[in-house]
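At this stage, I wrote out one protein's amino acid sequence and its backbone structure tokens, and that material follows here:
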Amino acid sequence: MEESQLEAIASQLSCPQGVAGIETGHKMNLLNAFITARTLEKLAASPGETIIEIGPGNGALSEAMLNTLGTEGSYYGIELSEDMANAAQQRLSKNQCNVEIMNCDCHHADIPAKSADGIMAVNLLYFIQDLDALFKQLKTWMKPGARVVFGVRSDKSLNSLPFVHYKFNVRTADEIVEIMSSNGFNDVDYSYHDEGEVMLGDMPLLVDSVIIHGRI
């Protein structure tokens, strides 16, 4: 691929836009099904809880969790892409739990202090320049004892991607754990899952899932 094509892929993965972005959203649902399932398992949402998801995309992979939250539960979806936020709003607003989709940068999301029982994000941390600032902000949203779960690809997997040089901040799982711990998260740990080969359009990728979790 030409450099311009690789840069376009990275741009769409970080913030899907337009017709190509809508198609990227559908592809990401397939590519991210496994890593999202493992993230949701670790989050273990319960009926009546308040859950925040950063980067839900079009919301397709979040529906099952919202069903679990039930009528007494609340869900905040923070999505940078306007197209993805609109798709998530259309899809998830029909759910029985209380749903609010925010189309904004997660650093500027207006979330009530100490409201969240859990926070999750899949394939987000590569696109965050300052993890210290993010983790400090997340803590203001979390109730005492609340948990946070991040699904990421390993540094080895990321560094094998031809477009990773654009927009991606590649970190090891140990580096992320250390930054979380230094920002006051407790019981920080991670699990590793090898997924093998998956397809991004016509591009075969060797991927894995690293599920990083902690509490305050």
The radius of gyration is 16 Å. The CA atoms of residues 66 and 95 lie 7 Å apart. The chain has one domain: 3-215. The helical segments are 3-14, 18-31, 33-43, 63-69, 82-92, 131-141, 155-159, 173-182.
